[in-house]
Amino acid sequence: MTKIALIHGPNLNLLGQRNPEVYGDLTLEKLEA
Questions:
Q1: CA distance 30 to 8
Q2: Rounded CA gap, 1 and 25, in Å?
Q3: What digits encode the pLDDT tens for the residues 1-33?
Q4: pTM attached to this predicted model
Q5: CA angle at residue 11 from 8 to 16, to 5 degrees?
Q6: Could you give the CA distance from residue 30 to residue 28 in angstroms, rounded to a whole number?
Q7: Contact between residue 15 and residue 28 where contact means Cβ atoms under 8 Å apart
Q8: Measured between alpha carbons, how far is 15 from 1 in angstroms, rounded to an integer?
Q9: Angle at 8 between CA 24 and CA 31, to 5 degrees
């Protein structure tokens, strides 16, 4: 079975907290779901 490691990059903890007009409203929890 192939394993894939998902490594989150810098600033992903700010998803959903930054300006939603520029960056959207996707949160890290929604991204991981």
A1: 14
A2: 34
A3: 999 987 777 777 777 677 888 877 777 788 777
A4: 0.38
A5: 100
A6: 5
A7: yes
A8: 32
A9: 40
CB contact set of 27 (below 8 Å; sequence gap of 6+)? 15, 16
Place of tokens 């907290």: 17
**pLDDT at res. 2:** 95
CB-based contacts of 21: which residues, under 8 Å, 6+ apart? none
What type of residue sits at position 19?
A: N
The token pair that represents 7 in the structure block: 């490594």
DSSP the chain: ---------TTGGGTTTS-HHHH-S--HHHHH-
